[in-house]
Every structure is written in C-alpha cells, then in structure tokens.
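step: validate -> pass
step: tokenize input -> pass
step: predict -> running
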Amino acid sequence: MLLRFLVMISLMCLAPASFTMGPATPACMDDVPCVLGDRSYHLKLPDDWDGTTPLPVMLHFHGWQRTGALPVKHQRISGATRRRGVLLLAPNGLRKTWDFWDSETEDVAFAAAVLEDAARRYPIDPERIYVSGYSFGSAMAWRFVCENGDGVAALLAVAGTLRQSEDCPQAPREVRHVHGLADTVMDFPVGPGGDETYPVALWRAHFGCMEGIAQGSWSAREFLTFERTTWECDGGRVSLDLHPSGHFIPHGWIARQLDELLGLPPSYP
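step: predict -> pass
step: emit ->
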C-alpha cells in the first residue's frame, strides 16, 4: 500500500509543473522541522541536487532522548546521505523516544506519513527507500519494516533490534545490521550456545536463509574493524557486521552501506 502511494506521488512530482509542490510549500529543512499534523520531522537535501532527479531516501530514527534535529547534522548520518545524493528524513519521536515494543504502535503510521509527506514535497525514487536508525531508533526501524516494510529496499540498523521471536508480516528486500560485541546499552543479543549471528535470527528465519558466509574483515577507518557475515536467502538478503566495541554509530558504516546499495565506489566520509 505504501509503495503504491509513493509511486503515484512520485509520478505526480515528475510532471512538468509539479516541482512547484516542493519550493511552493513552507520551507522546512535542517533545524526547521516539517510540521505534520501534531507531529514533525526534519529533512536534509543532498549536496548538488539538480532539483528534478528523483531522490533515494533514507528514513532515519533517532536514538533515545534525541530528536530528528541531530541526524540531519550528524557527520556519520547526514554526512553520508548528502554526499551520495540521498534525501534524509528524520522523524521526531514523542517525548524523544519511540514505541517499538509491539505492533500496536502509532509510530509506524506516523513514519509512513513522513514518507508520504516528503513525496509531496520532493520527487523521490520509490525503488530506493532505505530505513535506518540507531539504538532505540534502530529498534524502531526494525519495527517499521516488520509492520510496513514491503517495498523498502533495505533496513540499515545500528545497535538495536526487536525480540528475535517477533512474527513480522512484512519485510524489506534486504537487511543490514551492525552491532558491537561489547555493547551494554542495547546489549549484544548472543544466541543459544554463544551464537554471535543471533542479532539477525528473525530475518534469517523470515527469508528462509541458508548457511551464512563469512566475508572477512573490512574497515572504513583503521581504528575500527568489522567482521561481516552474509546470507543469501529465498526471500531476501541479510548481512551482519560485528565490531569489538560498544554502543555508537560506527564511523563510515552508514556511508559504506549506501555506497554498496547505490552501486558507488566505497569512500569516506
């Protein structure tokens, strides 16, 4: 349903006179939130956008006790999107948090409305919608794609999950998750028998994945190394990056995922 709506709105935005829908609306960008009913969200346009080319979108959920004003200024979030031609959308959680604990949450519908509102303001590419988040925001990103992920190109989740026993009615086409083995804030979810691939067990089961394939080490900055495992699956693709440190957004991780998803040469920042 969401994907069909975004396709329709995007086609309207590509009509010759339709771009006035963006600039003609009240300006909202960066620190100035876009008002949506009794809630709001922030956005950041990419550098050097030509004003007409449909934009890939990254919907990013902020961490606990933060707001959407942080991601649009954060070097490891908006620093990645704006250099790669991606429109960043950062919703504001009620009371600076998210209700991701079960499916009975209004935050999924709100986030869907954010995507729809952004599609009225700017031409977006409905085939390249990425959903991301950090900490509590990562758990909210999981919840969003669990309930409304059909048509989402990829989940980019940083240090936060749902219970691996959740039953998700929907899913994105691809899942990419990163977690620190020493994380004690959103504790690293070790599985039975010390299974360190357990943080993505839910999606591996949902997609019917086969055995994981170790991809070896990689790093965007020499002080932090990731170990990647990937699963090729019947219904999607899953990857898990592990690092030895704690609870933070790793340098270059979001940027690298976008480079790979968009078919760009890996770069930093």
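step: describe -> The first strand starts at residue 34 and ends at 36.
step: cleanup -> pass
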